Amino acid sequence: MNKNILKQVILEQLEVIEESTIIDRNYHFEKNMNYILVGLRRAGKSTLLYKIARNLVKSGADWSQIIYVNFEDDRLLGFQKEDFNDIVEVAYELAETKDIYYFFDEIQIVDGWEHFARRMADQKKHVYITGSNAKMLSSEMEKVLGGRYLSKMIMPFSLAEVLDYLEIDHSNKALLTSSKLAKIKNATNNYINFGGFAEAQHLLDKREYIKSVYEKVLLGDISERENIKNQTALRLMVKKIAETVMHEISFNKLAGNIKATGVKTSTDSMIEYTSYAESAFLLFRTRNYVNKFSEKESTPRFYFYDNGLLNLFLVDKASALLENVVACHLKRLYKDDVYYFKSSKTGIDVDFYLPQKQCGVQVCYNLESAYERETKNLFDFMDKSENVSRLIIVTHDEEGTITEGKKTIEVIPVYKFLLMN
């Protein structure tokens, strides 16, 4: 690798880091630990690295000790694992001390990166890595890296982070002030429709920006990387999944829906394509808590990691957007410990079940029109399940409590629910 080009890439990146506007996010990083940050494109992984770098300088490090390489830089096209040593050599040429902090952005582009990352950790180097592929969190990768890195999944902004970014007060006092509450509700509606990509927040044409992110994920992180030939089937699959948000779908049915349009595909292809979409952090799934393992895997409910991405495919689907934003909030808080609960034996169908919190969460845009069905469903859930102590219905704007004997359902408007931890 041409070392002068590497120096240029590194030095220009330092200028970007110094000049960037950065908002504090709810992620904590241990001092002197190596990290791998993964997540959807444009979710804010790079900005978190910028924050770490600036904190290092603020605490006494020199800018020359910061070696930041973004592997999506077009000047690094053709970079191979053999070239990693050149980065280390350039770092020693640039740094005024041997205590160097390495930042490698979108490193998964380079095949074999994990062996270099392990060697750097073994040599007690300070290393921070980002990537847009869930395979970086796989058990296989854990074996290669040998526990030398802590991993964090980074999602697009939460509602609280959006409000902070837009400088909208969302304190408890603000929630009780009519004028401030109106701003919070308006921002929440925008968040439900356009999601949490930071760079989209101040744009007038948010949809166009979100569409560009989607195309990059679909074509770059899925099609190109996984060498998918049947582009039409892939696009149709994402569209069909968007149309089934709120409902479980089997891979057989998904393949059948696509075949019905005249496009060839197979069940095996759908299983592969959905796994690719999950690896690119486009989609995530919840599984039925009551099913056997095989059924849990074969009939998932899919959600999109960002509401703006889902909304690209929907027309007048407020209920789906509401449920998806709740799913994202729960995914952020509880990761893979989020299920749905559907029993053909009891007739119970609960949108989300959180075992560690013993909590059932139902999503209903307008409770008034579905009061009896939703309340009966949740009360039956508590009656017939041993590990349920809290019941919640998330609505668009309704609030209150519903009691039946000693059982209580909390009715929480979505803006409040999304601000809960």
What's the helix and strand layout?
Elements: H1 3-19, E1 35-39, H2 45-58, E2 66-70, H3 84-94, E3 101-105, H4 113-122, E4 126-131, H5 139-145, E5 150-154, H6 159-165, H7 178-194, H8 206-226, H9 231-243, H10 251-259, H11 267-279, E6 283-288, H12 293-298, E7 301-304, H13 307-311, H14 318-334, E8 339-342, E9 349-354, E10 359-363, H15 371-384, E11 390-395, E12 400-404, E13 407-413, H16 414-417
Helix pairs in contact: 8-11, 9-10, 10-11
Domain DUF4143: 221-363
InterPro entries: AAA_14 (IPR041682), DUF4143 (IPR025420), P-loop_NTPase (IPR027417)
Protein name: AAA domain-containing protein
How would you describe this protein?
This protein is of the alpha/beta class and 421 residues long. Among the domains are: 152 residues, P-loop containing nucleotide triphosphate hydrolases (Rossmann fold, 3-Layer(aba) Sandwich); 95 residues. Helices cover 44% and strands 16% of the residues. The chain has 16 helices and 13 strands. The strands form 2 sheets. Strands 7-6-8-9-10-11-13-12 form an 8-stranded mixed beta sheet, with helices on both faces. Helix 3 links the parallel strand 2 and strand 3. It is globular and about 70 Å long. Pfam families: AAA_14, DUF4143. This is AAA domain-containing protein.
